[in-house]
Structures are given as structure tokens and as C-alpha cells.
Write a sequence for this structure.
């Protein structure tokens, strides 16, 4: 009877339940358990597997490395826009992503900006929140190669559906008028959709006006950044 049940579960592509059933029968403690408890154990195993698969799917789509963790992020005791332990603890809850709030992280090269951004995105992924990590220059280059302006707009709409978008290396290079417009469109669309954006930049925000040739776009981009819920300056 056991072998038949296991076979049927596998035929139904419920291998995780088949494995759990075999474990259940082999466990001496299960002898005194009820059939209801057995069914609950099988269902719990299935739900846990589906949760794991969903997290793996989010991780693949987010393009994040697996070796990042908030535990390795360095905090600072105090200071304006400092990443204190309290701020990091609040960010770790991912409530800011659920609420559609945004973050701007600035600081010199090798300050740990990208690592922090990827670690926060990893936490969001583990919290079952869809995440996408992009290097701004790579995304702009992709838009340049797009077959049409409509293809760029379609990509922007797709990015709007993601709960957390990380734009790394932001304002590193001077963006021409078209690039400025695309970046403004992304930020505007995400603001209207009420979803979170995490911007990572080496230049301080005071220098961003000079990084966008389209001054109207520059004003809009800086304005969006100034509205960020958290502005973090890493030393």
C-alpha cells in the first residue's frame, strides 16, 4: 500500500509529498499519530517546497549574487544620513518595500554601496517580493539596442511591475537627452505605481544636475531622489 501511494504521488508530480510520506512511515514516533496529522505533514512539505521554488524563481529573475547578506554590512554609530544599526534593522524588515518607499545610497568607490543594495534586495527576495537589479549603464545600453522606442516603453512598463528595482551606478556617466528621458520615465512610472526604487550612486546628489543633459529630466530625477524615504551616505 505504501509503495503504491508513493508511486501515485510521484506520477502526480508530487515527489516532495512522496518523500515526506516515506519519512513519516519510517519514523517510529509516527506510529501513534493520526491520519490527519500525516496528511497535514504532507501538505506542509508541499507548501514549503513551493515557497522555496518561488524564492528561487525571484532570485533568478532579480539577477542577484548568492553570496550577499545583511549580516556582513557595516553600520555606523551616528551622523546625518548615516547607516546606523537601527536604520539597517528597519530596512531588514522590508516594510519600506511593501509601503512603496524608496532609498538613495551615495558614497565613494569601495564604500560598500552595491553590497548594501544587493543585500537589501536579497532580503526582499526572501520576503517573496519581486526584485530586479540593474546597472544603469547596462540598462541604457540595452535601450540603445532596442528595435524601437515602443520596445523601450514596454521594458519600462515591465520594470514598473517589480516591487523593488535597484538602479546601481546611477549618475556615474553623463546621460545625453535620450538617456536622461528614459531614466526619468522609469522613476516617474515607478513613483506613480507606488513601488520602491533603490538608487545607488557614487556622486553626491548635489552633483547630479551636471550628469543629465536634459535639464527638465535632471530636475525631475533629482526631485524624485529628494523625496526618498531614506537618504544614506556611506563614508
Amino acid at each position: 500500500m505504501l509503495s503504491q501511494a508513493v508511486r501515485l504521488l510521484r506520477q502526480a508530480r508530487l515527489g516532495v509529498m512522496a518523500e515526506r510520506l516515506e519519512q513519516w512511515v519510517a519514523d517510529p514516533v509516527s506510529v501513534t499519530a493520526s491520519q490527519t496529522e500525516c496528511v497535514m505533514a504532507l501538505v506542509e512539505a508541499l507548501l514549503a517546497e513551493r515557497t522555496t521554488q518561488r524564492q528561487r524563481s525571484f532570485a533568478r529573475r532579480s539577477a542577484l549574487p548568492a553570496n550577499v547578506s545583511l549580516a556582513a554590512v557595516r553600520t555606523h554609530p551616528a551622523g546625518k544620513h548615516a547607516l546606523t544599526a537601527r536604520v539597517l534593522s528597519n530596512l531588514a524588515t522590508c516594510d519600506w518595500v511593501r509601503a512603496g518607499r524608496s532609498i538613495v545610497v551615495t558614497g565613494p568607490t569601495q564604500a560598500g554601496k552595491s553590497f548594501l543594495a544587493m543585500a537589501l534586495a536579497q532580503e526582499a527576495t526572501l520576503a517573496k517580493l519581486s526584485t530586479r537589479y540593474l546597472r544603469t549603464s547596462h540598462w541604457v545600453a540595452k535601450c540603445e539596442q532596442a528595435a524601437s522606442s515602443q520596445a523601450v516603453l514596454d521594458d519600462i512598463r515591465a520594470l514598473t511591475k517589480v516591487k523593488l528595482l535597484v538602479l546601481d551606478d546611477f549618475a556615474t556617466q553623463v546621460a545625453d537627452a535620450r538617456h536622461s528621458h528614459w531614466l526619468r520615465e522609469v522613476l516617474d512610472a515607478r513613483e506613480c505605481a507606488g513601488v520602491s526604487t533603490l538608487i545607488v550612486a557614487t556622486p553626491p546628489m548635489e552633483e547630479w544636475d551636471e550628469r543629465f543633459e536634459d535639464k527638465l529630466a535632471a530636475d525631475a530625477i533629482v526631485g524624485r531622489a529628494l523625496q526618498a524615504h531614506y537618504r544614506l551616505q556611506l563614508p
Observations:
- The chain has a mean pLDDT of 86.
- The beta strands are 103-106, 131-135, 164-168, 196-201, 230-233.
